[in-house]
Amino acid sequence: MKNSTITKKFGLVIVAFILCLSISIKANAQAPSTYFIGSWNVSVADVPIGDVNLTIKLERKDGKLVGVITDTASKSEVAKIDAVDELEDAIVVYFFASETDVDLYLKRTDQDNVEGSMMNQFPAKGKRVKL
Fold first, then answer.
1. pLDDT tens per residue across span 75-98
2. Which superfamily does 38-128 belong to?
3. Where are the domains of the chain?
């Protein structure tokens, strides 16, 4: 009889612990960042065709960042963004341009600036476009 009572109490403690743990994990889940939403003027230096100036426009649709990349000077579309990986304080934008799959890593440096690299080779710096 004593073992049965102890087993029941132990079972209740385990269930309570698991319940608290699951609530804690859910409470710590972070909402997606809004930092990168908007337009960014990004300069990429030293690419084979020279320095490149792009405008990256990002918005959130169905929980994911999506968007388009345009040439800053001509305003013509360079590419649609294929995917965006969201990291803690950075993003990686994937797109197809000039017959090449391109990745652009951008890390937040302050409220309106980012820096990173294209294809892990060419330095990139960006500034938020203020409306």
1. 999 999 999 999 999 999 999 998
2. Quinohemoprotein amine dehydrogenase alpha subunit, domain 2 (2.40.128.120)
3. 1-30, 38-128
